[in-house]
Amino acid sequence: MSSEIKHLQQQLAQFAAERNWAQFHTPKNLAMALSGEVGELTEIFQWLTPEQSKQLPKDKKAHLEEEIADVLMYLVRLADQCDIDVIKACEKKLVKNTQKYPVEKCFGNARKYNEL
Questions:
Q1: Cα–Cα distance for residue pair 112/103, rounded to 1 Å
Q2: Which residues have CB under 8 Å from 40's CB, separation 6+?
Q3: pLDDT tens digits, residue range 20-74?
Q4: Which ranges in 1-116 belong to alpha helices (H)?
């Protein structure tokens, strides 16, 4: 696992332990919290045009940064609680996606793999 991800996992575990929150950090609760944070992330882009979403004003970009951090922290904490190596999981999924989405079939196409 990436030492940076591992370090973040340790920091998050320590943060939770110092507050006696580890008892609440069950996979179910972390997944639910993650879902809520993704909703907050999505809300930033709600009703924006594609162009506007690429050029956020400074205040919205700062808010986006915080929400991305929240999402990543809950995701890393969830992976830690489920004993999943995030980097290995991503590498395995990328291999699988490479097989599902061969360049020659999906280049410039947004359809799902079963529609190619």
A1: 13
A2: 67, 70
A3: 999 999 999 999 999 999 999 999 999 999 999 999 999 999 999 999 999 999 9
A4: 3-18, 27-45, 50-54, 58-81, 86-100, 103-106
Distances (CA, A) of 30 to 11, 36, 41: 16, 10, 16
Whole-structure pTM value: 0.89
Task: Measure the CA–CA gap between 67 and 46, rounded to whole angstroms.
Answer: 14
At which residue do the structure tokens 């882009």 appear? 45
Q: Collapsing DSSP states into helix, strand and coil, what is residue 62?
A: helix
Residues 6+ apart with CB under 8 A from 30: 74, 77, 78, 81
